[in-house]
Design brief:
The protein has 432 residues and is mainly α. It folds into three domains: 62 residues, Rubrerythrin, domain 2, CATH 2.20.28; 219 residues, Citrate Synthase, domain 1, CATH 1.10.580; 107 residues, Cytochrome p450-Terp, domain 2 (Orthogonal Bundle). The chain contains 19 helices and six strands. The strands form two sheets. It has a three-stranded antiparallel β-sheet. A three-stranded antiparallel β-sheet has the order 4-5-6. Strand 5 and strand 6 form a beta hairpin. It starts with a strand and ends in a 28-residue tail after the last helix. Bound molecules: acetyl coenzyme *A (ACO).
Amino acid sequence: MSQEATLSFDDKTYKFPIFEGTEKERAIDFTKLRSETGLISYDEGFGNTGSCQSKITFIDGEKGILRYGGISIEELAEKSNFLESSYLVMYGKLPTQTELDLFSDRVAENASIDERMRSMFSNYPSKSHPMAILSSMMSSLACYSPELATNDRAADLEGFDEAAAYAISKVRTIAAAAYRASNGLPMIYPKPGVGYCDNFLHMMFSEPYNDFEPIPEVAKALNLMLLLHADHEQNCSTSTVRMVGSGGANLFASVSAGVGALWGPSHGGANMAVIQMLEEIHASGDDGSKFIEDAKSGKSGKRLMGFGHRVYKNFDPRAKIIGSVCEDLLNKMGVSDPCLDIARKLEQSALADDYFVQRKLYPNVDFYSGIVMRAIGIPLNMFTVMFAIGRMPGWLANWKEVASNPKGRISRPRQVYQGATQYAYTPIEERA
Ligand code: ACO
């Protein structure tokens, strides 16, 4: 197979190397394109652009494959848990028992937040969006532990083990505190000796002197959902984290930017948009058929939320896993959700509809994760926050990869300018 690609224009020919990844993906190395040809490549939305070489996660969107550090998501969903998979994502290998214990202990030890930080939550207006609080608070961690956020690459990398466990622990506490603050509820301290997800549920739903005690399947489903979100290669928020990190910014500043990027409805906000869509369909008395027609016409500006993916063009393996867990959980909890019936109908109709088939639009992970979260009692505006908790190890791993690359350059794309060409400044009184 050719190891070079040829580009010809203006009677000149240029050669660019082709290289291969470990899974045989091939790429043309265009790093010298501009210096050799004067051209830049144009790829709005980066659909064909490899922004980095990474060892963290592999996705084959055509075949519906997702692997963290070489291990399939199906196997991890069956045999692992969120903390162990977080370690795998961040360190590229499964931990030994000693390594896992050290990591889990670090996560457990860092569950509390500084009292001065805790008092900040009460200063947000009631009904503040918890994603806004989360982003600010993740960035603020740099103020409370400045030794982990020096913006000196070598020092920040040296503190990575501590900082990563700290961030994974704190994001959960901050998320629960953000929910309670935005609902005017008293904050609940973490419980020592309690697992990651149980502790989160405790901080979310316990009341003073009245501990929340869910059935074990609830924490299990939550754990699985976080595991399924732990990393997803160069998505919008992870690319944002890498971009911020590429300038040398510390880990907290970088993941805080990731939270902002995740908030949008085309990305992490989709799980929330799915439930809003299902509720809207339910309230209108439609069984989903009319909504599908609207989404197809494009005129209404509606899309079938939870369907389609930039990378998966066959199926999203995470959707398959969470879809079946969703059914089991609802049965065990004895929850009957009309939105689930509508979701099933939408899924069946869309999978049999030429519009969706031709465009390769399949349910993505958000299609069912919203229903799981609703059954657990997570309020709608917390859905994207849950995604952020899950994605934290992926962001941290990607920050580390950027920071550890001695040849890494600051991310600085080019553009094709389409604005006004030069004209003279006119004094204000002469302007029309
Ligand atoms: N409903 C109806 N039509 C759709 C949908 C949808 N959900 N998604 C894409 N299409 C159509 C587009 O209108 C377009 O049609 P056209 O070729 O006739 O113009 C075609 O499919 C291609 O769509 P693009 O927007 O170019 O696809 P892109 O890869 O840019 O977008 C995205 C992917 C953003 C996920 C899109 O499918 C979407 O908006 N889905 C709904 C939101 C969603 O579920 N987001 C979650 C993504 S997963 C995640 O972040 C965890």
